[in-house]
Amino acid sequence: MKLWHAIAGVGVLLAGGIYAYQHQAELGLAMSLTPDALEPAHMKWQKVDHTEDGFKVELPDTENQSQVDAQNAVGSTEPINMISAEPDTNTKFSVSWADDPPVARASRMDPNLTMDAARDAALERTKSTLAAEKRLSYQGAPARDFSGRNADGGVFSARLIFSGRRLYMLMASFPAASARRDKDVTRFFNSFAMVNNGR
């Protein structure tokens, strides 16, 4: 276990958790929330085609594209691609992905160890505790659903998919459990489709 704690400590996950930690207010994982923030956001679902990146997905608002840095085990950073949508200022849905990310290399490309490390790092970086977890197969690839909650009441649901040498992280974050709707998370997760073998 010490190896995986060390990996999580230097933040070598698929950047989604790092991004969440660095943008807690945007992700609804911080305090000072208005009453409206505790209600579910209004979703305007849009189909997003990233065939060139190996996937398609539906997002609940206009897509934003970005690139964030993930720190690796030797202290340097590596770019991670991300798309996201914010149906309101306290709710965020995102997809991040990378080929041969640091967590996969450190685990010698073992799917379960890779997803264990990515999960632990996401929980650590968002200062959350694990609420639920389920192993599954998604479109023939090993996958993991898990959710977390932090001390301020913020919650998130995440799905990891390890396809070939690529790791995807889908994350939906909310300011409170009352702002989360199962149907929105299910639609987001199930809309994700890997194309061209997910690469």
Describe what this molecule looks like in 3D.
The protein has 199 residues and is of the alpha+beta class. It contains 5 helices and 10 strands. The protein has a 7-stranded antiparallel beta sheet, with helices on both faces. A 3-stranded antiparallel beta sheet has the order 1-2-10.
Brief sketch in words of this structure:
By secondary structure, this protein is α+β, with helices and mostly antiparallel strands. The chain is 23% helix and 40% strand. It contains five helices and ten strands.
Provide tags for this entry:
single chain, 199 residues, alpha+beta, 7-stranded antiparallel beta sheet, 3-stranded antiparallel beta sheet, 5 helices, 10 strands, 23% helix, globular, disordered N terminus
